[in-house]
Amino acid sequence: MNRLIVVSNRVNPPSGEGDESVGGLAMALAAALREYSGLWFGWSGKTTPEFTGQLNIEKVGGVTAATVDLEETDLDEYYNGYANKTLWPLFHYRNDLAAFDRSYGEGYRRVNCRFADTLAPLIEPDDLIWIHDYHLIPLGRELRKLGVKNRIGFFLHIPWPAHQVFINLPRHRQLVEAMFDYDLVGFQTAEHQQAFEEYVLSEAGGSQPEPGVLEAFGRRVEVGAFPIGIDAEDFARLLRNSRARRMRDLMTACTVFRHLIVGVDRLDYSKGLEERFLGFERFLTENPDMRREVLMLQIAPVSRESVEAYQQIRERLDSLSGRINGAFADVDWAPIRYVNKNYRRDELAGIYGAARVGLVTPLRDGMNLVAKEFVAAQNPEDPGVLVLSRFAGAARQMPDALLVNPNSAEEISDALKRALAMDKAERIRRWSALFETVQREDVTAWRDAFVQALAGQKAQAPALAS
Ligand code: GDG
Question: Which pLDDT tens digit goes with each residue over 18-69?
Fold first, then answer.
């Protein structure tokens, strides 16, 4: 079996069995690496005054992690700059928040070169290389420049935006050209894949000789949709642990005679939190008789705090949650519990399990794993209802959720009303269909489909005659 090298911006394998502090994706990648006896390469999370290229290699929980420190300027220009102030907002259709600064683009290119220079000496001839996400789009190209001939795949975790949105990016063509140095490019959904194809065909003069293959810039690349899932087996294990059960009992005790509505999201403007609060406010206004029957818990750990747009959304949510509680609360009840704390994965599982409604309403989302975690945590005999944005990648696989337009307070309010009134038979019917998909299309299926597609390919074909 070929060795697998996973590359992502951050490297954070769990320290061992029972480490529930890291995200589900990190757990899954770590499991893949243990299976393929591979290597996980990326940024250490530390900065130094000057870039040294010094590799730190350590074994963490059975995974070999190879990391490199970056310069302070790298962090500003590459990570906070191009990745999180340019690509992230633009790819989530927030052109109004996107900053186009030449230094960001230069920092992005520089860090991708630095990653390539540091990684290349570690690569052995038969290694499969799997690069993740928008931080590292040009990394494949930089590795090719250094003579790396291995099969290299790239997976985009966030949406690929519609053509007219994408062309707002200065030097958009260059970014797409770099993607033609991969053997395989994966997207979360067929819709994202089609948006990419449309760009290549209409803007880059490319062609599609057969479905799933694109030719442009004198090269050929395979493309496909690989919807990511959760580690359903691991999630079932989490649910059985004592912390999860304690948390579920605690939340059940806090909501006697009322229903818990839960949202869990990184504090990010793409997650539709303001619109969600407004939808809930409308529900409270329109349904006075149901007010005291509900409690909305929104967990939103802060993220990317040094980016201004994140500071602003945080202020707006503080004020909006305060306004709603001020208007509707009573001495013994307040409608919203808004929490910026980070919880362990097992605690989150317990919280989901106590909820009657999972409210997952991003304005745009590559996939959204919270929707799947909520489903996995339900009691099969009395499951809750998932209210899901139609603009989350997950909506495609989860038609049995109540799908809403996250921009419409009216639709969110109506969906909440419907979810809370739904009889048990319908809840079980909808949940069973959702759970079946969550289990079948889980993270292992995602990983294996991608790695097999990558491994099944012939080595990079020589450049086509142009
Ligand atoms: C990107 C794409 C795509 C949240 N709060 C806590 C916590 N979380 C965990 C959730 C979930 C994960 O973070 C969030 O995953 P999402 O998929 O919802 O969103 P992004 O972070 O934006 O992820 C997204 C994903 O990549 C994978 O491809 O689905 O579309 O944007 O697992 O549970 N985890 C813990 N404490 C918290 O307080 N431990």
Answer: 676 666 677 778 877 878 878 999 999 999 999 999 999 999 888 899 999 9
182: closest CA among 139, 120, 121?
Answer: 139
Domain contains 460: no
Q: Which of 84, 266, 340 to mutate to test the pocket of ligand 1 (most atoms within 8 A of CB)?
A: 266
pLDDT at 459 over 50: no
Q: Quick one: tokens of 62?
A: 């059975």
Mean pLDDT value across residues 238-244: 93
Query: How far is 16 from 27, CA to CA, in rounded Å?
Result: 10
Residue 409 belongs to a domain: yes
Examine residue 462 and state whether it is found in any structural domain, yes or no. Answer: no
Q: Are residues 224 and 236 in the same domain?
A: no
ipTM: 0.99
Q: Which residues contact 75 (CB under 8 A, 6 or more apart)?
A: 47
**Which ligand 1 atom is at minimum distance from the Cα of 369?**
17
pTM: predicted TM-score of the whole model, two decimal places: 0.96
Residue 179 near residue 187 (C-beta atoms within 8 A): no
Enclosing domain of residue 343: 232-440
Ligand 1: distance of its center to the CA of 266 in Å? 7
Query: Is residue 462 very low, low, confident or very high in pLDDT (cuts 50, 70, 90)?
Result: very low
CATH number of the domain residue 299 falls in? 3.40.50.2000
Q: CA dist 452 to 4, 28, 153, 444, Å?
A: 11, 16, 11, 12
Residues in contact with ligand 1 (CB, 6 Å cut-off): 23-25, 157-158, 228, 264, 266, 299, 301, 342-345, 348, 365-370, 373
26 domain residue, yes or no: yes
Contacts of residue 429, Cβ cutoff 8 Å, sequence gap at least 6? 400
From residue 436, alpha-carbon distances to 116, 385, 401 in Å are 40, 15, 13
Determine what percent of the chain is predicted with pLDDT higher than 90.
87
